[in-house]
Structure formats: structure tokens, C-alpha cells
């Protein structure tokens, strides 16, 4: 048995008795008082984090109004009102945006270069490309390093590219060689379907790894039109709403989903090796309060 001291308001030092540390992630504490010593024992955690009559009763029984800690990834509090945030991968991978949200999570430039350097086969410098969810142009600028022509558009006006809703606007079949984008997650399936009409050679979609899941996407896309390549980042790709941030972190995994028009066979799984340091360039992260590019170029 291991005994750990936790600073707190308890006169006796508020000790935690832990007999099996590996079990902590699946447990939540129950506060008890014995012989004048406050201690914390562990029992299986409740699944729900919302308040219920039973939870309120349990809080009321806790000594000195001490709310139970949370050890299983659920949110809780300790004496003094300090909170423990849920940072489990299952929760951090969920990002729900309102239906009318622009869902603006700019792609770090190195993540686009990783696609071009490690995933897309062959030479592209004589080809054309469309970025239909360009935002402020962070991905489109990088694509111009690899393509002869890059067209950029977005349903919202960011001062870069054409204002055009890719999902509802009429499209010309086979108008470009490639469609490469980081679409709004809730519209990713529609983006894939339209992109496969527009592109002559291939489509690359940057999405959370969990995009691979769901029966709806299986029946809507993957069963009949599976990607040729599923390229998983082994590094995290931090994305912050509305801006680029070189110091951002994330618990969410991302991957490139790539469709090749000439591919015939099962999907290929590959890992994108650690490459952030090698692929970042000076000027990738603009200075300024909102860290956006201010150029009006399109």
C-alpha cells in the first residue's frame, strides 16, 4: 500500500490511501472519516457527470463539504473549488459546433506539407488543385508550394479566396486535378462526395481519426468508395478555433483520407512519421492578436 499526502484544509493532512495505482483511472473516490483522520478510498466511478439526487446526497455526506475527486476522466472538484478537467481522449476527440458555425479551425501549415511530402504519390507541380474550405488561406498558401495553380473558396468571407458554398454551389465535373481541404466536420461526408466529382486525379480530406467510424459514413462513403490511403499522424496536429497557434496542444488524433481515381484495391494504411520540426517554416505562424494572415491575396 502506498500513502500519498495531498495538501488541503483537513487538519489531519487529508491523506489518500492508494493500494493499486493502475486502478486509479477507473475509480472515483468516496470520502470517509475514521478516528479523526480524513481519507479517500476508491470505488468504481459513476459514468455520468451531471448532477442527480443520489450525487447531491453523496456530496452532502462528504466531510467539510468536500466534493469527491474525479479519477476516471470525469470532472470533479477538491477543497477550495479547484476543478479537474476531463482530458480523456474519448471526450477531447468530440468537437460539436452549432449548425450555423463556420467551424473555423485552421490547419497548421506543416500538416499540409506532411500530406504532400509523405502521402500523395508522384509529382504535382504541373497540376491544379481546389481548396473549397480555405478559411483565411492557411492550407491554400502551402498548396501553392506544390501545385501550378490553387483555387480557393469558402462559404464564409475570410478575405481570402472566392466566397462560395461548396456543398450547395453547382460544380463542374473534373475541373481540377486535386481537391484538398480540411472541411467542417459535420459536412465532411458531403465534401467527400462533391470532391470526387470535381477532381480528376484525387481527393484528400484532413479529418479527425474518428471520421473513419460510424455506420452512416460506412454506408454513405466507405462501403462503395473507400479511400485509397488512410494516413494517420503519429504526432498531434493542434488546431485552435479561429487562429493558428504554435504553442497549442490537443488530445485529438488527425489523419489524411486520400482517394485516388486510378486506385484499384483495398485501402492502404500508413503512418505519417514525426515531421513537424522538419516541415515548419519561418512565417508559418503570423504575429498579431488573432494570428491571422492579413494579406488580401487570393
Structural summary, described in words:
- The protein has 298 residues and is α/β, with parallel strands linked by helices.
- The chain folds into 2 domains: 2-86, no CATH class; 109-279, 3-Layer(aba) Sandwich (Rossmann fold).
- Helix content is 17%, strand content 24%.
- It has an 8-stranded mixed sheet, sandwiched between helices. Strands 1-2-4-3 form a 4-stranded mixed sheet, with no helix packed on it. The protein has a two-stranded antiparallel ribbon with strand order 5-6.
- The model is unreliable at 1-49, 62-94 and 289-298 (pLDDT under 50).
Overview in brief:
The chain has 298 residues and is of the alpha/beta class.
**Strand order, biggest sheet?**
9-8-7-10-11-13-12-14
Helix content: 10-25%
Order of helices and strands: EEEEHEEHHEHEEEHEHEEEH
Proper CATH architecture of the largest domain = 3-Layer(aba) Sandwich
Return the average pLDDT rounded to an integer. Answer: 75
What's the CATH C level of the largest domain? Alpha Beta
Task: Name the descriptors.
alpha/beta, Rossmann fold, 2 domains, eight-stranded mixed sheet, four-stranded mixed sheet, 24% strand, disordered N terminus, disordered C terminus
Topology record:
Blueprint: E1 2-5, E2 15-18, E3 27-34, E4 37-44, H1 53-61, E5 76-77, E6 83-84, H2 89-92, H3 109-118, E7 128-131, H4 138-143, E8 149-154, E9 162-163, E10 176-181, H5 188-198, E11 199-208, H6 215-222, E12 229-233, E13 254-260, E14 268-272, H7 276-279
Amino acid at each position: 500500500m502506498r500513502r500519498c499526502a495531498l495538501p488541503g484544509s483537513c487538519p489531519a493532512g487529508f491523506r489518500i490511501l492508494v493500494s493499486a495505482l493502475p486502478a486509479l483511472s477507473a475509480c472515483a473516490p468516496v470520502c470517509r472519516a475514521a478516528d479523526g483522520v480524513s481519507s479517500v478510498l476508491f470505488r468504481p466511478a459513476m459514468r455520468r457527470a451531471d448532477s442527480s439526487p443520489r450525487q447531491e446526497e453523496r456530496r452532502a455526506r462528504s466531510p467539510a463539504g468536500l466534493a469527491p475527486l474525479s479519477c476516471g476522466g470525469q470532472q470533479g472538484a477538491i477543497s477550495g473549488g479547484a476543478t479537474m478537467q476531463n482530458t480523456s481522449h474519448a471526450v477531447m476527440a468530440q468537437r460539436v459546433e452549432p449548425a450555423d458555425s463556420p467551424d473555423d479551425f485552421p490547419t497548421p501549415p506543416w500538416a499540409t506539407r506532411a500530406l504532400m511530402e509523405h502521402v500523395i504519390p508522384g509529382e504535382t507541380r504541373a497540376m491544379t488543385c481546389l481548396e473549397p474550405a480555405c478559411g483565411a488561406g492557411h492550407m491554400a498558401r502551402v498548396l501553392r508550394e506544390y501545385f501550378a495553380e490553387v483555387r480557393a473558396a469558402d462559404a464564409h468571407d475570410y478575405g481570402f479566396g472566392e466566397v462560395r458554398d461548396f456543398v450547395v454551389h453547382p460544380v463542374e465535373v473534373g475541373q481540377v486535378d486535386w481537391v484538398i481541404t480540411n472541411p467542417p466536420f459535420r459536412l465532411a461526408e458531403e465534401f467527400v462526395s462533391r470532391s470526387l466529382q470535381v477532381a480528376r486525379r484525387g481527393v484528400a480530406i484532413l479529418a479527425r481519426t474518428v471520421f473513419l467510424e460510424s455506420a452512416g459514413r460506412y454506408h454513405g462513403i466507405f462501403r462503395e468508395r473507400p479511400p485509397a490511403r488512410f494516413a494517420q499522424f503519429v504526432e498531434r496536429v493542434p488546431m485552435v478555433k479561429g487562429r493558428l497557434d504554435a504553442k497549442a496542444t490537443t488530445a485529438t488524433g488527425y489523419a489524411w483520407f486520400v482517394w485516388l481515381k486510378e486506385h484499384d484495391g483495398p485501402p492502404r494504411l500508413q503512418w505519417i512519421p514525426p515531421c513537424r520540426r522538419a516541415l515548419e517554416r519561418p512565417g508559418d505562424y503570423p504575429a498579431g492578436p488573432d494570428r491571422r494572415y492579413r494579406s488580401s491575396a487570393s
